[in-house]
């Protein structure tokens, strides 16, 4: 059973390039798991992200890539074939929105990365826009408690395929909160040593002569 990701993307031209340049596609073409539905590992990975890159195609055929960000957890897995996120108000160019909501192509590609690990998932699907006021229940499911941003729309993506991509050339990077968590034990240790040093200095300092 070929992996669905390979079925969708390995066109004749791609297969010709693989043959010409020594590509290794056999593992994707003969995989036992088609990877066309999300399992627990994929759901956990996606819902832990604080951003991803979204590619859409406009009616003129030009691709457009946009970074979508928010608090960790703003990207929701609704079921094994559906992901969604709240579309927060941004620069109001609406290029991605227009590509999906207008006369463009509903197909999307998503790359989600964890640069601290590192790990990367590529996902293909079809998207549709839902106005937040038109579906209050869905809006509540993708709401981010405490995040002060205006939710204008919800983007629903039906998963067509995904693939875990090679992390070889991912540069390790860490968010401010990840760095703070990593150094928290060191900060606490330094504070304890400073307190202990202050007590020792006070114990050995002779009392002032009147």
Automatic annotation (TrEMBL):
Signal sequence bounds: none
Q: Which domain of life is it from?
A: Bacteria
Which InterPro entries does the record cross-reference, listed alphabetically? Pyridox_Oxase_N, Split_barrel_FMN-bd
The chain positions of domain Pyridoxamine 5'-phosphate oxidase N-terminal read 43-136
User: Which Pfam families does its entry note?
Assistant: PNPOx_N (PF01243)
Q: What is this protein called?
A: Pyridoxamine 5'-phosphate oxidase family protein
What organism is the protein native to? Answer: Pseudonocardia aurantiaca
